[in-house]
Amino acid sequence: MTRSPGCRCACGLVVAALLLAGCGGPPPRTAPVSPGPFFDLVYETALARRRQLMEERYERQDLSYLISVLDYAQTGFYARDREAARQGFTAAYRVDDGNIPEAAKAFNWLQEDARKVYRLDKRERLLVHLYLGLNYLMEDNTEAALVEFKKLRLRDMEASQLPMVNYYYGLACERAGDYDNALIEYRRLREMPAGAALDAEALVARAESLASGRAPPPEDSLELIVQVDHLFAGSVGPTEVWADERLVAVLPGRMDDFEVRLTDEEAARKAAQEATAEITRQGLRLAGKFLARALFNDARFGDLAADIAFGGREDREDTRYWGYAPVTFSFGRVRVPFGTREVRLEFRGPAGGLGQCRYPLAGEHARVERAGRAVFVVAGLAREFYGYQ
């Protein structure tokens, strides 16, 4: 019997459906292949890219160029480019103060500008002074470091508990021979959860010994200070510290979120400013309604005119922020034997191992900072810094 064309078409569709069902439908999509753990942290390429972006944003009159200045300074800090970090952070807070002539001493392309430039919030401003202080500390410029830590304290008025500030401020006081203030900072640190990881008891004992005029016992090992800046949530996790293949410490993932609080005066001032702004806004909208009713016999035009002239509340919110400001910090203080050749950090995130980075302590490939009796190892964790083999 001869089948009609319609029958043959129907049979073909049935066969095709059976074949698809047997094959389990369309082939599954291939998941992107992860590059795996990184084997280095590379900052130099990002530093050059961020300097270019900083200058480009200023040239095209992007009023948030200050954020790019912060990114550049921060990357310079991780790359151990002390000059780049010092110039960038100094220019950032000078611009924030409205002191362009002083900021231009760091970057001569900065010019007087009457436009409203992005303003740093309190946490960002305190971080600028913290990083500047650390940068000076690693340059062995204790006097300049103390200036920055004092600026930070004056802005915060001890409203916030910031273990990193207590530790580094105490360390700077100790180096300057101001043992009484070093003791105050270390005792405050001892009362905080992060104090245990920094062995605050030993710091207090050392400062007490120095303050009383007694010489501390001779040191038979090297003081190693490790700081890990977690720049996004996916990088937050413990860090293993290895010295010549020997595990010497495990740093918790969250030790200081740098949670900044407003002082009572700042909170009152902010509330007053917001209330005044809202009263002004509502007054302008009311006046616009009366005018619109008189002209157009429709008060809705008043709302529209007020929004066009003054913006709705959501339009005036400044949602920009320093995206690379650390989410949290891990840091620790450990002692390693004299003659240690290399420190290795192994990083873990919420999903497991992230990677590692090696830090030779001496020679032409050294990647640490030596200041006084201490050796600093600092890592900033962001995806663009990950180096793969």
CATH level-two architecture of one domain: Sandwich
Terminal-residue CA separation: 69 Å
Stretches with pLDDT under 50, minimum 5 residues: 7-11, 13-26, 272-278, 308-317
Mean pLDDT: 82
Count of individual beta strands: 10
Give the class from helix and strand content and strand pairing: alpha+beta
Strand order of the largest sheet: 5-2-9-8
Cα gyration radius (Å): 29 Å
Helical content stands at 40-55%
CATH class of one domain: Mainly Beta
Shape: globular
Indicate the proportion of strand residues. Answer: 15-25%
Question: Topology, pairings included?
Answer:
Elements lengths: L4 H18 L17 E2 L2 H16 L5 H14 L3 H16 L2 H4 L18 H17 L3 H15 L6 H13 L3 H12 L9 H12 L9 E10 L8 E5 L2 E6 L12 H33 L3 H11 L2 H4 L11 E10 L4 E8 L2 E9 L8 E3 L2 E8 L4 E2 L2
Parallel strand pairs: 2-9
Antiparallel strand pairs: 1-10, 2-5, 3-4, 3-6, 6-7, 8-9
Helix pairs in contact: 2-3, 3-4, 4-6, 6-7, 7-8, 8-9, 9-10, 11-12
Task: Record keyword descriptors for this entry.
four-stranded antiparallel β-sheet; Immunoglobulin-like; single chain; four-stranded mixed β-sheet; 389 residues; alpha+beta
Outline:
It is built from 13 helices and ten strands. The protein has 389 residues and is α+β, with helices and mostly antiparallel strands. The strands form three sheets. Strands 5-2-9-8 form a four-stranded mixed beta sheet, with no helix packed on it.
